[in-house]
Amino acid sequence: MATAQEQAQKLFTEYSETVERIRGNKAASREGKRADLARTYLNTRQRMDAIFASEDTQRADRRRELERRLFGMPKLTGLASDPATMMIGHRDAMDRAARITSTDDALALLRRALTSGDEQLARAIVQWGYEKRDTAVVDAYSDARPHLDPDLAELWQMPTDKNPTQAGVERMRREMNYPVTKPAELADVDDMHLLAVADGRELTQAA
User: Fold this and answer.
1) Torsion of CA 167, 168, 174, 177, to 10 degrees
2) Distance (Å, rounded) from C-alpha 73 to C-alpha 93?
3) Structure confidence by residue, pLDDT tens digits, 185-197
4) CA distance 152 to 26
């Protein structure tokens, strides 16, 4: 299955080619071309939005999967694996992590958690680090759990409300790489009236 980027590139190429084909149609009137251009523009913009909405949904699902894997309750054995005991331990760990006030506090508590084998507390602390965008805390946990480093790196780079800079970069990347811009022939038409032009109402009025 094609990736969102591949789908977007294909659609952008089709859009550019269609716009040029409409412009080169000598048999069409000015109003007819404007109607065709408006329909093409609106349809392409809708399809492009759908491509990236689907990608955003898939990314959100993947983010939740990674968060469960990294921050959820670990698989324990013995008495610690009792569901009630695990739930109490999880709540206690989250409460202790919520009281962290600085990177130094987090690192000190993380060292104690790793030394004592308190994985629930360690996960709660790295979750705090992720949500605070604290690289020192996340890196310290990653160094102690190198097998989780790929998941941590992937999650860290994902655009999210916890990572607004990356989200902004992603929006800019999409707009730069796949610019579905309004054709110059429609520069005098605001978005509210594009549909009327696309429906041919401008053509009817001109006739």
Assistant:
1) -130
2) 10
3) 999 998 889 998 9
4) 57
Distance CA 121, CA 112 (A): 9
* Residue 72 CB contacts under 8 Å (≥ 6 apart), including other chains: 123
Considering only CA atoms, which of 143, 178, 155, 197 is closest in space to residue 60? 155
Model confidence over 18-50: pLDDT tens digits? 999 999 999 999 999 999 999 999 999 999 999
**Whole-number CA gyration radius for the chain:** 26
Amino acid, single-letter form, for residue 6: E
Output the pLDDT for position 72: 87
Q: pTM for this structure?
A: 0.70
- Pinpoint the alpha helices (H) of the chain: 4-23, 30-71, 83-98, 103-116, 119-131, 135-144, 149-157, 164-177, 191-198, 201-206
What distance in Å separates the CA atoms of residue 199 and residue 35, rounded to the nearest whole number?
7
CA 138 to chain centre: 21
How far is residue 107's CA from residue 136's CA, in Å, rounded to a whole number? 8
